[in-house]
Amino acid sequence: MTKTRVEAFSDGVIAIIITIMVLEMKVPHEASWEALEKLWPVFLSYVVSFMMLGIYWGNHHHLVHSIKEVNGSVMWANLHLLFWLSLIPFASGWMGENHFEPKTLAVYALLLNFCGVAYYILLKVIQSCNRNNETFRIVLEKQSKKGMLSMVLYTLAIPAAFLHAAIAGSIIIIVAILWLIPDRNIEKATKKEH
Amino acid sequence: MTKTRVEAFSDGVIAIIITIMVLEMKVPHEASWEALEKLWPVFLSYVVSFMMLGIYWGNHHHLVHSIKEVNGSVMWANLHLLFWLSLIPFASGWMGENHFEPKTLAVYALLLNFCGVAYYILLKVIQSCNRNNETFRIVLEKQSKKGMLSMVLYTLAIPAAFLHAAIAGSIIIIVAILWLIPDRNIEKATKKEH
Amino acid sequence: MTKTRVEAFSDGVIAIIITIMVLEMKVPHEASWEALEKLWPVFLSYVVSFMMLGIYWGNHHHLVHSIKEVNGSVMWANLHLLFWLSLIPFASGWMGENHFEPKTLAVYALLLNFCGVAYYILLKVIQSCNRNNETFRIVLEKQSKKGMLSMVLYTLAIPAAFLHAAIAGSIIIIVAILWLIPDRNIEKATKKEH
Amino acid sequence: MTKTRVEAFSDGVIAIIITIMVLEMKVPHEASWEALEKLWPVFLSYVVSFMMLGIYWGNHHHLVHSIKEVNGSVMWANLHLLFWLSLIPFASGWMGENHFEPKTLAVYALLLNFCGVAYYILLKVIQSCNRNNETFRIVLEKQSKKGMLSMVLYTLAIPAAFLHAAIAGSIIIIVAILWLIPDRNIEKATKKEH
């Protein structure tokens, strides 16, 4: 029961974050291709942020699916993660509106880093109250490794943003791809369990 | 369990998309009939987009209801569909604000086309991991046929928008009606299953 | 299963409608009591609309709770209701921003009337596919009677708005109170069933 | 069933309230640190309000989790609580935009007080229809005590805001910390029940 409500609340918050981001793409008052063209940086940052939030939703789904119990600490660690995720529309909008200027890209990378840390904390809090579960152990191991690597890459993206926007952007995209590759081990473990 | 969460997340996102669209109808500062009258194109495009999203919700409902299993690929194909659907408020608002100018109508038809393709991909991805289910087979067959026809019509609507707004508009309405006609075969199959 | 998803989607849409209404109350840029005072009509219309939507949620809850089956027609009748409800933030905002001017009040009463009709249609559609259920019969009878009376009163409120805002306002409040009085018959019937 | 829907609706509303608050943090048009720095009061009030809403969600969760039955009065008491919570984004935005001016802080403390009273009413309404449940008795006792103390502190924060913003702010933070300390008694009781 408790677990279901944590899932439902997280789904709700992530669904809203992902959807209100589109409000940053202000409807142009003219019906010209130029007006539409001007929106490309906002659109691009929307695409990237949508993907990022989609990845978090997917991982969160796999993680919570594999556990049995939810306690007060898990609820707070989960809210902490949702807090950082809720700032993505802001950072994404700032970056898009200012055509990926170094500072905005650096802040975006920093925010993604905070989200990563918050996810890692959630992982550890869940670990401390859910032992002896094979599926969870595999999810934990895989997500921990990928999470660590992501944080290293995001940290590199912060100074890289001041060298060239394209470098920082590429690093962020690489992290996304890293997570998009489906994890056969997790899927196999989940299947075996059923 | 997994299936429920995909449904809940999709419901959440579609519910939010459908509702934030109403924010495009800016409250007029004067209490005159003229101020209200000026809103008719925005209102009309709201009605059409509401209907479109309602149809997607209904189809999505029938589709996911008929399947047993959800895996990583289904989750991503579903997110891909939600991404295109999330752009409907923007395209709808642009079209309404510019009184159905050819370019805006063409972009709207193009977006509906992308949504259609994304739905078709979801259909195919689901098909590859859910075999041997009679209800699903019927849903798949019907939705594939209608989906194909919709895409052909949407593609026709794009150049038609530059001839006359009314032609493109009519095509889009025809596609909506096509989907609004309840599918007796699907309902019968669903009923039989219970 | 199907019923659950119709409930979840309706809950989502009503929850969002009720919450985005608060966005019409624009944050004043000054920290003065005068700036806050100016917001009272927007606040008052927010309170009334919140109550109205709360009543619809409650009724919808009782109605869908008492039925067994949901088919395509119910889904569409439900979406039709949600469409009219989704316009409440707009009508409410217009009314508040223009200090309950006759025209805005008349439009608000008209919209509530449309919502009432849409609810009545949903009631009838559900009736045609759910027979022989005692709880549902009682809910139906009570809600039909109250619904009829509401529609008569809302229709009276439209011309009344042009006589004096207070008369139309009072009628709308009376309808709200009519629904707020808990229905002992429905609660008893629901209890007996368990 | 009924209980689930009250939970789902409350989750939805709280999730939306928590997320639309971020829209008050308007994306700056310049990519400078100064532009970002100017947002700190809005950001700070966002953090505090996020925490407050998170606490309400957690408490609501524990409260509703411990009960068996939900009736009409509970539904209305719950809606009443959601109404006051829905005003938090407004009060929070006003406070942030005006750099914690005494009046805005006082209004914020007053609103939190109203939320507290509404929660207390919900507690009492639930108590009158759910007897003889050990877990619920413990939740009730603990939350009543903390609730009383919170209301006293919030009431003190109102005049304190006019002395110095920092005093009122500290009181509000103290109340938050009071609730953030996990309640071992509730968790133990919940665990025992399973």
Plain-language structure description:
The structure is a homotetramer of 194-residue chains. In chain A, 82% of the residues lie in helices and 0% in strands. Chain A is mostly helical and 194 residues long. Chain A has one domain: I/LWEQ domain, CATH 1.20.1410. The longest helix of chain A is centred in the C-terminal third of the chain and has 30 residues, at 134-163. The interface between A and B is medium-sized, with 32 and 33 residues.
Helix-strand makeup class of chain A: mainly alpha
Q: What's the CATH first level of chain A?
A: Mainly Alpha
In DSSP terms (H or I, runs of 4 or more residues), the helix count of chain A works out at 9
CATH architecture of chain A: Up-down Bundle
Q: Sheet with the most strands of chain A?
A: none
Rg of chain A: 18 Å
Please provide the ordered H/E string of secondary-structure elements of chain A.
HHHHHHHHH
Strand percentage of chain A? under 5%
Unreliable spans of chain A are: none
Strand segment tally of chain A: 0
**Helical residue percent of chain A?**
over 70%
- Please tell me the total number of domains of chain A: 1
Oligomer state of the chains in this structure: homotetramer
**Main interface by residue count:** A-B, 32 and 33 residues
